[in-house]
């Protein structure tokens, strides 16, 4: 499974990336929204998106909305998981996330939960 | 009667003007009055033989009141002179002089009537009795009548004199007769009552006495008729004495001598026998003791003639007994008027006494006014006096208790002033531009005093805040005062903005420690405000640690060398993250201690950097970049924590302003904060510039108000700038905020600290710059 990870904090990004890679996911990680959009429009096309809510250059929510406006991406990039620090969650944000039907993980969380939300790294056995 | 004199109830004092002629005009008036007196006194108002009224006493009593003893004596002598011509003796003159002397000696404090009455009933009576009985040998009844006559006359004159003196006065100095402005009740009332009594007595007396001449003449005529009858009936012998008729005869005949010729009767022995000294034959009599006097009739013998048949007879009898009888009858008739007179005098006495007593009581109460607890005086008083007197007493007692209450209130206020430094003030004006309070302090004991208080700049805002309130409180400190005493101002009665009619100021007590605690609490509150950012800051290393641990476990589980190496790197990561977390904890702990705020040598650049590091999580969270342009190694004498707190607060506000601007403009703005430090002769200047919304208030000063905030409730207490200003003031510095000039947007906070610069920044190459270890570490 191809997973795009968007996280600005370097230590977290690296560890999270390694976490998923060690478990067999094809992970690419970027640090900001611009990079994320670039990757999204590459042929590599991720199947899942894990993004932090708070990003330089814009919020993770904006990324998701932009993504969902693209028909192609909308269909292909699922699941989408939002990571957030508790303090980012105003009522407004919470409502927006609910509205977009985005699952949230509040940092720090047990990374193992990511695994169940993403699904197995090799969903399709090549025939 | 001293008491009466003291309170002006002395009628003699009332009417006693006692002047002497002081000018030519005065002498003229005096001479005129004397002439009038003499003329009037020469009139004889004859009511009956021996019953005359004369006006002499009126004039010499008036003279006594007008001119004193000497004048009175002179006038007495003058006006009584005619009496010598009437009666042929000087006793009246003597008695008049005695009368004046008596009044002068005993009559002080009374009107003229009472002493006159006293005199006439004592000395006067004695004199008259002695004179009449010795000189004239008058019978008692005649003496009695004379006494009565003299009494009535003199008392009447005295009463008239009293009335006249109480209404007018003779000012001999100016030579004028003046009308008195005020009339004394105590002199007029008794005089009026006495006058009425005397006049009625006199009237009754006169009525009786008027009949006397007729009665007397009739009785003489009757005697003569009877005499003629007797003579006719029995032809008496010559020289016969007609005996008085039988006892049952109503008209008792006096002894009578009969002779054929009148000349025979006109002999000394006959007259001696009959007891008379002169003959009344019907011819006119002039000189003293004429037919108008009782002396005449007591000493006279009446001569008559009668013809019986063809014989002429003359008869002679003494009129004395007739006169005596007539006088006796008259005297008896006088009992009625006498009683009336006595009763009226008694009434007058009682009335006067009650009037005087009422007035005395009134005077006593009025004089005691102001003292508490006056009671109604006892004694005879008129009803009309009682009511108002009771009202005055009641009002007085209420007034006295009010005075007492006022005194107690003044005492209580004085105590409060001493205890609490309470000041009662009026006309309170807060001059916002100069930061002073002007007022007028009320003092119980002294006139109001103008006061001016310079208000601590931090607290001017509090006073501005209540400038439009009609009934408000404000706490403030005095600018420049050594202590940290807080004062509470209460105002009431708004007249204009910042001007109040009345209020009070009281000193509150507050210790320095409380102030420091306040600062610490503010810091704690700010820390709470940073809690979200801090929490995030700590969560990040924790998250990293947990991920590293997971990864490490997986790597070790691989059982390969690469796995072990990889795991080892994870441990490294963990250690590094723990260290980072520890740093954060250390910073927070140090910040939240109660630091003493005394100045120490501080590297300004290092402090600023530390503060920025402290705020980094927040800035990251809010997408704000901060830059510090500080000289290396600028050592100043300042409280470290205070400066840190200033920076923290400034950055906090800037971040919030930037976030707010971002929200309103909705443009993903990149926040920028710039901290610069410059120094000159005056001290150091720190400025913090941001590109947030700028100042939204019209008045930058309002931003420094306690609890003034435009931020939503969860993100700020509004204390930050207030505390900041406090800190700066404590360093004797200044802080201000301005908006960035257009077209730019944002705010600049400038902090001016007149601190002592210990070490100037040096940029000498190769040389180790002086500074503390902290700056080296940076």
From TrEMBL, chain B:
It catalyses: ATP + protein L-histidine = ADP + protein N-phospho-L-histidine. Its EC number is 2.7.13.3. The keyword Glycosyltransferase does not apply. SUPFAM superfamilies: ATPase domain of HSP90 chaperone/DNA topoisomerase II/histidine kinase, Homodimeric domain of signal transducing histidine kinase. The chain crosses the membrane at residues 27-46, 58-78, 84-102, 114-135, 185-207. The keyword Kinase applies. InterPro entries: HATPase_C_sf, HATPase_dom, His_kinase_dom, HisK_dim/P_dom, HisK_dim/P_sf, Sig_transdc_His_kin-like_C. Residues 533-757 form the Histidine kinase domain. CDD domains: HisKA. Keywords: ATP-binding, Kinase, Membrane, Nucleotide-binding, Phosphoprotein, Transferase, Transmembrane, Transmembrane helix, Two-component regulatory system. PANTHER family: C4-DICARBOXYLATE TRANSPORT SENSOR PROTEIN DCTB (PTHR43065:SF46), SENSOR HISTIDINE KINASE (PTHR43065). This is histidine kinase. The lineage of its organism: Bacteria, Pseudomonadati, Pseudomonadota, Alphaproteobacteria, Sphingomonadales.
